[in-house]
Amino acid sequence: MAIVGIVIWVCMLLQFSIQIDSSELLEFFKSPDANSEESIYLDDRQPNVILDALSQTSRYVYFLVRSPLSTQYARFDCKTAPRPSSAAALKEIRLCCREDTTKSAQCHRLEGMPRQGIVNCGKLNVKYTLWSREGASFNISFAPSTERPVAYNGLISCALSDGEAVIESNEIEFRDALFYVDQLNTQSSNNVLLRPSPLPPTDFPLKFECGTDFATKMKDWPSWMTAVWQKVVPFEWAFCSVEDGTAPAGCASASTPVNVGEGITTMYGSFYLLNAQYLRSHSNSAIVCRQRNSLNPIVIYASAVKGDSPPKITSGFSIDDNASPSVENSDRLVALSPQSLHFEFLDGTILNNFQLQAFYRRPAGAAVESTSAVWYKDGQQLSDAGVQDYALRLPDKVSRAIAGEYKLEVTNPNSPALTFVFNIAVIGPPKFQNVDCMDDLFYVMEGDTYRTECNINPGSSAVKVGVNGIEGQTTQDLRRRLSNALDLANKPISQLEIDFSVTGDDKQGRKVVVSVGPLKPSQNFRLSIKAANGNGQSQVAGTIRVVPKPSLTTSPSDFSCASASDQEPFFVRCVLDKAVSVKWSNTFGILADQGWLLNRMWTLEEIFKDSQLAPYFQFDPADPTRIGVSPLEPFPKMPTTTTTTTSTTNGLSTGFSEHNQPSSESYTSSPGTLKQLLSSRTSRQVDSLSLECRVRLFVNNSRAAFHPARGDDSALAPTLLLDRKRREALSDSRKIYDSMYEQDAELSKTLTATRSLSTEPVEPALANLSWILAVVISIIIVLAVIALSVWLCTRDRGESYNAYRKELKIGNDPLLELKDNKSFQPFERPPLRVVGVLTTVSKLAEKGDVITALSASFSSQAIIATAASACTRSACKRICLPEGRSEPLSAKLRNAASNALPWPAEQLSAAMKDR
């Protein structure tokens, strides 16, 4: 399984790298074989070079090849980075040329031209190969031993456009050093020049010339030849031991090169033999100027020859310490080389042991030891290791720091002083102090501002800032050009909020500060800063891409609730817009990690590490967009599994396992509600629950630069696929965005769900069916009891009312009778009522309606007794019982009546008689 995982990971990376290379904006392609040096020398060891268009500075290619077997060529690839397969052909493919920096460039448009061809760029013939969607490749080559009627010098650059953006390369300047060398007459000859011998030591240094016209021609060389002449000079100096009748060719072939310290060769072809040391130890030696690497003589200096076709050298030079000086003014300091020289160096040039050389002859005699030589630069004495009596070695790499006035002051007590002055100027196009001041690819989050600052070295320069190839010298000028560009009409880039400033001067240098933003989605652009002068230009450029912020199709804020009713478990969802997620992955090479924050205090990882807090939450690693919360009690325990489920979202492993989620069964005592638990953890009352969807973006594109987002991600998931690689991919240094620190209040609100927590747990009204049935049954019973009670209380009143009405019908008014009774007392009312009822019962009995009378009177024992008394004094002799049986009125009934009535039977009879 581990092998399968690794294979899947590798495949993802391969696919990922292919996807992220797809570019929406035009960018130059970086060739893996391209030479990135500023100065390139095509010599016998390295006759070929490949260049791309990504260099941030101008480059210089020197043609120095001497070998008759080597073909030298320079290939310049002007291609775009891989583009989507749906991308259209380029609108423009241009090759721009000029002969030198004093002339304007002429541009040749190649789109629509044959796939292969030749473009004449001044003295250069440039071959090209076209690709309509990628660009072009240019080639300049020279066959072995190519004759050079002119110098193959020139500058070329290229530009590509897709109709919306234009990208331009810096210039490449080709310098044909061999043309100038070939103008020197260095043909082999048997020419021997004679000088007297022996030589007195006071005559040194001695000057020798290799050719009569070398100095004249070399003074007309371009200034850049100063730095490379030692690489291409076609001659060298040597000593030749002379025997009787030595031929010039034999002398040159057996000669020994001059060692350092014995003599110095100048760039004008002169040779100065500094002292007599070699000749004193090697008497009878000739001095030879020979062709470099061929050992053929150009000219030989000796003291005697014989014959002339060819001459035979019979005597060389020797030293006579006692000989008188053979030169004039031997008693004073004499200058042997020019006392004022001017040199121009190209900034950044690599020098090969270049020296400022001043040659002079000391006075003869004892005064020679008193001669002093001191070097100065801009008035400051120099005393480093490069200081010598006759020369001063300059640093190997030219910079503007070496520019200035150098002086050599030679003094002797017996002679006027000598002063040699060297003015050194450092020229070249403006240079940025740090070409990395602008990254080639930079990611900026939506709503943020991109800012860069670039410093330009001292020197004259005109600065322009460009967006997609549209340049301006001021902010207003650039904004106007962007808004008026037809190709950018109605596009977000036309409304780009860009500001820049240029401060400083030629002496101190210049500083360019560019600020762009706040940036909106789709405002991707190519930014450039170009500095130019009469010697060329330098340009730094980079692509700025705007990374969109998270966009949601389902927001946590949709699940917010302000009322205190969160008693049941609930779920919150956070679903990212798929289109934005795909763009993160495919266009930017960004990995997205989605998680949750609880009350901005606990991350998802921290929640599930807490054995008390975790059971109140439910989270499925396979669906990180959803989280459940149980406010009152832990969730029921989920079925445990022995396998670990690790899910991936947009290439990220959540790192959670089903078996490591605690449940309510893990408690030994009731943990309380979630509100109580959170309150105890924070030492304050927690009345609401905040669930924030946390989105973190990590840049997995090593080519892209960005400003890391703040915050610490030390709580990353512990179980990760390919742990080491993933830790590197998800480290804080690669995090570009964290929604936890989102400044946009609206987006932050959208990412957050807020739920209130009740103070006390309240059982819901419809908690269960049994409780509902119990309540309904109780209500029914209470209503039945109330109805029965009402009926029982009102039944006797109804019978009394009917009896009252019947009394009125027969002419009796029970109420009036009660009022007339003076002996009436409140507690006597029951008997009076009985008397009234008795009359009714008696009349019913007299009619023979015994059953009715008894039924009406059967409700109380008192009425029964009264009815029985009525029956005894009326025609009622028998009583009918409810069961339908009749029996004579007996003493038993009378006894029952007596027991039921509050009056004795005798009183009742008396009352009835009175009535």
TrEMBL record:
Residues 640-649 have a biased composition (Low complexity). The chain crosses the membrane at residues 769-792. Residues 1-22 form the signal peptide. Residues 628-673 are annotated as: Disordered. Residues 650-673 have a biased composition (Polar residues). Keywords: Membrane, Signal, Transmembrane, Transmembrane helix. This is Bravo_FIGEY domain-containing protein.
